[in-house]
Amino acid sequence: MRVAVEADGGSRGNPGPAGYGSVVRSHPAGEVLVERYGALGVTTNNVAEYTGLVEGLRAALELGATEVDVRMDSKLVVEQMSGRWQIKNAGLRPLAASAAELVARFDKVTFEWIPRERNKAADALANRAMDEAAGKPVREVLAEDLVSPAAPASVFESGAPSSWAPPSLDNATRLILVRHGETQLTKQGRYSGRGDIPLSDEGEAQAMAAGGRVAGISRDVTAIVSSPLGRCTRTAELISAEVGGVPVTVVPDLIECDFGDWEGLTFAEVNDRWPTEMAAWLGSTAVAPPGGESFQAVAKRVGAALRTVLDSYPGGVVVLVSHVTPIKLILRDALAASDTFLHRLFLDAAGVSTLDIWPDGNIAVRSVNETSHLR
């Protein structure tokens, strides 16, 4: 059984009167299964946060859970339990050891940092514990606090942020994203989705230059994966020639968005003929062009494809050759950006972006849309 544990703790004074709160939810429905909270006397925020984690893990174990997704708004606890930060405070080590012992009793435990607004239930329980201990009027945990906050559909399973300190690359997978080289439609600024348009002569030269840039990033490329369309597979082949002939694997779900009736048209032409539909499309990733595919649908299939790729080449260097929409969606979620990002980021033909991804979902974006190799 897989569950989610949301945990928090706090103190009024740091150190001061403290309390913790933990909520165990079903996965993926988010139904509350167990709540735990308690006062801790006078101690620090960090001790309270670790206590919330320990109590949440104990509750999950008592329920018979085998997999746990831990979600906390404490960056310190998440980073320390993920092994990226050292535990320098001697007072926290016994609690961290207790948490680690509990973690070892599950088949799988992941740690994810979440914003405080997505941890309202655990926070409310911690405050309830402190209020009860102080004899203050107790604020009831509201129904909206107990609802698992919906996160935007993401191509990544976890939204864990990168450590502020330079993380070790020992078990990270390096993902090098390359947009295909120029085509005639690219040059004219036309929507180019499922149409199999070949590279132009300029696009061939750009793809070779992108191969040189990829080789500059890493000579030890593990795999090259590509959209099935010819403009991408040809770009991938030319990159392969620059990095020792690594085979190209076609991944169908890396294909571009289906723009439906807008295929081959410019933005101005679409806006002139479908102004209402264009406004709706720009305003929501759930809206598809007439006869086409929404960005939410693209994110779902690209996410599934990306997870398969990452599982297939753990710790390697993977070059992913695709189109504007899939690459933008990957970068949006890697940067924890809003949907507005999709319409503000420009990706050049044969532009290169690089990010590192750890097994626990931690992500470090190294570059976005590099184009110096094209000059």
TrEMBL record:
Pfam families: His_Phos_1, RVT_3. Residues 1-139 form the RNase H type-1 domain. Residues 10-19 have a biased composition (Gly residues). InterPro entries: His_Pase_superF_clade-1 (IPR013078), His_PPase_superfam (IPR029033), RNaseH-like_sf (IPR012337), RNaseH/PGlycerate_mutase (IPR014636), RNaseH_domain (IPR002156), RNaseH_sf (IPR036397). Residues 1-23 are annotated as: Disordered. This is Bifunctional RNase H/acid phosphatase. It comes from Paractinoplanes deccanensis. The lineage of its organism: Bacteria, Bacillati, Actinomycetota, Actinomycetes, Micromonosporales.
